Amino acid sequence: MRKAAGSEYATNLPPEARPIAVLERLEKMGMTVAGRGLRQVINDCVEESLHFDPKEVERLDSELRERGIVTLSELRRRYSKAYARIKKQGRIKNDSEYYLIRNVLDDPTEKTAEERALLAKLAFDYEGI
Q: Which residue in 41, 50, 38 sits closest to 77, CA to CA?
């Protein structure tokens, strides 16, 4: 997380609002508080990233992968409420949902065979519309 906190996306914030500064403040309150805060920050960042252009997600995923950091697409898969909703509803409703599913599907991070098959079916069904 500390590696990701230093990325170009964090430098546009005031110093006290940058992820690493917030994490350090939370750590001083205790590791349990830091863990909860970190999960909330990840959730917020993942949900905010849903408006990113698909090419920007690919570029960021590549940059993070080169640095040995978990990709945005993988974080979306793990933490996104939108991703969970799409899987639950069993269909893609719009282009934004489609690109979320495509980016997760195309990310080489390990997924179960069942999850990969579901994502491929969702994308295929949407592409056929």
A: 50
Residue 37 confidence (pLDDT): 75
Q: Indicate the DSSP class of residue 14.
A: -
Mean pLDDT computed over 74-103 = 89
Q: Residue 30, SS3?
A: coil
Closest CA to 82 of 67, 61, 99: 99
Number of domains in the chain: 1
Residue range 10-41, pLDDT digits in tens: 556 677 777 777 778 878 888 887 777 777 77
Residues 6+ apart with CB under 8 A from 97: 82, 86, 126
Domain that holds residue 40: 2-127
